């Protein structure tokens, strides 16, 4: 019997753990031809999430609990789920029931048809207009400037075949944008549309700053177009600056100095100073990525586990 692993990253989800477990079990108990394991990862929660995971795991030995030593960010808890998954396929689902477990059988059907990656594409009718606009425009920009194309509204709720899991685990990089990596891997993909639920309980830790950090990871991890634009823009500025100098010197020698005020000079200094500062900042972001990678720190540290025989690096 093939096994399917279901990973549930959690952060401050004490009121949701039991409900998520029961909702998933209600769905998978109807699927008799596969064995399932549930992997809860507590990403350094500040509430009683760990206690709730332990309670569930003590009742059901097919529930694995992994407790990180502190909060390492959402990407880290997701990869911890992947690293501990033993199944022939892996399904990632949020710990707040925004992603409905009822979609799981559809994922499995698409997998059985030969699709290696089955991604859920969500819709939300109650979403803030600003956040929706920011997200949609980010994906448009990303797909324009990158050779890797990713669909909008895919948040990681989906099914991955074992070879996809091994592919994701093979990446040595720590500065990760998972949606981009999944697209970069290739493989045969299928997409399923669904309506995303409101958060069941508690408050999301994801905010505008989190979206901006994700956007940075995507852009600086999958595109060098910005650096190319800096080079081309630099050549253009130098060319026109040289033309201006030649024309200005010719004008001075023929009719005298036509500029008798410091304002144009100050404007030029401010403009070129801003361009230089922007260019240095962009280069600094790429250097930041290099520094993060050369540190070679692990993505997370496991403090303890439950229903697992040994720790996995």
Name the overall outline: elongated
Q: Specify the oligomeric state.
A: single chain
Number of helices: 10
Going by CATH, the homologous superfamily of the largest domain would be Spore Coat Polysaccharide Biosynthesis Protein SpsA, Chain A
Which structural class matches the secondary elements?
Answer: alpha/beta
The ordered string of helix (H) and strand (E) elements is EHEHEHEHEHEHHEHHHE
Low-confidence stretches: none
CATH architecture of the largest domain: Alpha-Beta Complex
- CATH fold-level topology of the largest domain: Spore Coat Polysaccharide Biosynthesis Protein SpsA, Chain A
Gyration radius from CA atoms, angstroms: 25 Å
Strand content: 15-25%
Please report the distance between the alpha carbons of the first and last residues.
Answer: 27 Å
- Overall pLDDT score: 79
**For the largest beta sheet, what order do the strands appear in spatially?**
7-5-6-4-1-2-3-8
């Amino acid at each position: 019997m093939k096994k399917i692993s279901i990973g549930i990253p959690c952060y401050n989800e004490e009121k949701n753990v039991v409900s998520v477990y029961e909702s998933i079990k209600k769905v998978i108990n109807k699927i008799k031809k596969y064995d399932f394991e549930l992997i809860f990862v507590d990403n350094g929660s500040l509430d009683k999430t760990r206690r709730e995971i332990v309670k569930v795991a003590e009742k059901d030995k097919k529930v694995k609990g992994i407790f990180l030593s502190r909060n390492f960010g959402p990407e880290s808890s997701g990869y911890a789920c992947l690293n501990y998954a033993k199944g022939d396929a892996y399904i990632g689902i949020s710990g707040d029931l925004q992603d409905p477990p009822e979609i799981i059988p559809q994922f499995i059907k698409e997998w059985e048809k030969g699709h290696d990656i089955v991604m859920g594409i969500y819709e939300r009718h109650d979403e803030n207009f600003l956040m929706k606009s920011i997200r949609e425009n980010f994906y448009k920009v990303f797909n324009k400037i990158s050779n890797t194309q990713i669909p909008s509204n895919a948040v990681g709720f989906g099914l991955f075949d074992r070879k996809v899991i091994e592919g994701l685990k093979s990446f040595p990089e720590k500065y990760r944008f998972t949606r981009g990596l999944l697209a970069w891997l290739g493989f045969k993909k299928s997409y399923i549309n669904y309506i995303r639920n409101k958060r069941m309980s508690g408050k999301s830790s994801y905010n505008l700053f989190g979206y901006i950090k994700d956007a940075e990871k995507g852009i600086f991890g999958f595109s060098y177009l910005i650096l190319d634009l800096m080079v081309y823009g630099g050549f253009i500025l130098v060319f026109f600056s040289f033309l201006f100098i030649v024309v200005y010197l010719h004008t001075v020698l023929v009719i005298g100095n036509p500029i008798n005020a410091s304002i144009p000079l100050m404007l030029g200094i401010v403009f070129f100073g801003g361009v230089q500062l922007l260019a240095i900042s962009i280069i600094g972001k790429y250097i930041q990525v290099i520094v993060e990678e050369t540190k070679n720190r692990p993505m997370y540290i496991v403090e303890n586990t439950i229903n697992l025989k040994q720790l996995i690096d």
